[in-house]
Amino acid sequence: MITQLSARYILGFDGTRHVLITDGHVVVEDDKVLYVGTDYDDPVDERRDYGQSLIMPGLIDLDALTDIDHMIIDSWPTPETAPGLQWSRDYFENRRHDVFTPEQRQAVRRFALAQLALHGVTTYMPIASEIHSTWAETFDELAGMTETSLQIGLRGFLGPAYRSGINVTDDDGERVVLFDEEEGHRGLADALRFLDYAAELDHPLVTGVLLPCRIETLSDELMRATARAAVERDALVRLHCLQSPAEDGFLAERVGRTTLEQLVDTGLLDARLLVPHGIVIDALEPGAAADDGPLGVLARNDVSIIHCPLTSFHYSKALRSFDAFKAAGVNMCLGTDSFPPDLIKGIDVGTHLARLVEERLDAGRISDFFDAATLGGAAALGRPDLGRIAPGAQADLTIASLTDFRDGAVEDPLRTLILNGSARNVTDTFVAGQPVVVDGGLPGIDLEELRAEGQALFDQMVAAYSERDYRRRGTEELFPATYPAAQSAEVATELANS
Fold first, then answer.
1. Which domain does 425 fall in, by range?
2. Which residues have CB under 8 Å from 240's CB, separation 6+?
3. What span, in angstroms and rounded, lies between the C-alpha atoms of 367 and 347?
4. 458 lies in a domain?
5. Rounded to an integer, what distance in angstroms lies between the CA atom of residue 63 and that of residue 58?
6. Which of 273, 262, 270 is closest to 236 using CA atoms?
7. Which of 44, 61, 247, 261, CA to CA, is 20 to 30 A from 348?
8. What's the domain count of the chain?
9. Minimal CA–CA distance to 454: which of 127, 68, 160?
10. Above pLDDT 70, what percent of the chain?
11. E strand or H helix at 86, and its extent?
């Protein structure tokens, strides 16, 4: 099957970098790109013209939210309400039940994966909150999500998240990490079982990876076992770390090492390691890029940093600095790690944060951030056939319309999309040559029905926080409204008539 896709703008790849093609074509044969350019005259089986649109490489989200939501309710709490978003010590000691049934959990996954697809993501590595479960993710849960992912048509690098400890709010309101080593090793066993499952499945859209949770929630032995398994199986490892000064405090108390020292000592730097965030590293400090500096260590060990600008911004943080990490030779990728999973908006925020950090207008170039969302992600995954539109590459494509009057005049198509638009401009996507998003929808999925189901599950999730809160506060206190509700209809009427 040969399909010719045409559009006003196309971001092709010349072997070194993305290049802009005007009034061009992308020709797809089965799952691969056959041709990209302006003068294709050979016969094709189908033609699709997207008009005033930009055809770009499929977006790669390596910290992709596969949960119902964990940004809108946890990025703004006051110091008084924030501790209520973690488990209490009582809940840790008397773990009662999952918030969701297995069936509901799969509905959550379906909601989240549909969101990823509609926001133009074609390749993803999942992240979800574990606090709604009795401990962490399971093999069965990820096997179910794999089926949903394949039904939608996304390319997933998947595995159950696991941990041996959890952040808990103690009775005095202080954060501590409590451990259950048996749970940790049970989780690793599930993760290894999933690697076998993915290998046996042998599907081009599914790759098994190891996804341990935050570094402070992993025992020394669980980290070592993860490193051994990753090296033996040549499996990617993604580990959330270098994202909070508290990490070093917890690790210093427990094992007497800093985060970087722990990565070295446990052997994780010998693995193919991806690290979300990295915001505790000040790359602008003198010596940061030296061989023994933090950037030097990361670059020398081929560690990829998954920068999540939206999450950093929501938590009043910023990477210091994207340009310095890149200049030091650290491979930079992008993730969303939040809702909405909008990498276009993430690039917009990221470039502006970079300018604020470096106090210069030429910092954080859009091209560098877009490279991170495409070429950098592909490099982290060891997949040179992703993140680009070139003959022989996988036909993973994201198509964004530039026809909305509210986007204004098109100056440069990518810059206009990033600065004036969002991922809601995406109308169509292809993964391995197959249509996933079509005319802004997902064939076979009733989005209105899924939205209603997602809202009910979200409300159920929010209600469960009270049971875990160390002070058993109600949802009204944990999640107060932006403005208080009117006390009565009469008050509202009186105000309207005054």
1. 1-57+393-445
2. 213, 214, 215, 275, 276, 277
3. 10
4. no
5. 15
6. 273
7. 247
8. 2
9. 68
10. 95
11. none
Distances (CA, A) of 265 to 177, 234, 262, 300: 21, 19, 5, 16
Q: Is residue 476 part of a domain?
A: no
Task: Convert the pLDDT of each residue in 199-242 to its tens digit.
Answer: 999 999 999 999 999 999 999 999 999 999 999 999 999 999 99
Among 66-80, 216-230, 243-257, 400-414, the least confident range = 66-80
For residue 240, the one-letter residue type is H
The answer to whether residues 91 and 75 belong to one domain is yes
Question: What is the domain-level CATH number for residue 411?
Answer: 2.30.40.10
Q: Are residues 154 and 224 in the same domain?
A: yes
Distance, CA of 481 to CA of 479 (rounded, Å): 6
Does residue 77 sit in the same domain as residue 93? Answer: yes
Q: Which phi-psi region, left, alpha or beta, contains residue 69 (left: φ > 0; alpha: ψ -120 to 50)? A: left
Same domain, 201 and 82: yes
The CATH number linked to 287 is 3.20.20.140
Show Cβ contacts of residue 465 under 8 Å, excluding neighbours closer than 6 positions: 84, 85, 475, 478, 479
- Point out the domain boundary residue: 412, 428, 445: 445
- Residues forming a β-bridge with 13: 18
User: Using CA atoms, how far apart are residues 468 and 465, in angstroms rounded to an integer?
Assistant: 5
Please say whether the beta carbons of 344 and 72 come within 8 A: no
Structure tokens at 91: 């809940």
pTM, to two decimals: 0.95
pLDDT digits (tens, 9 = 90+) for 60-87: 999 999 998 766 676 666 666 666 678 8
Residue 3: its pLDDT value, please?
Answer: 97
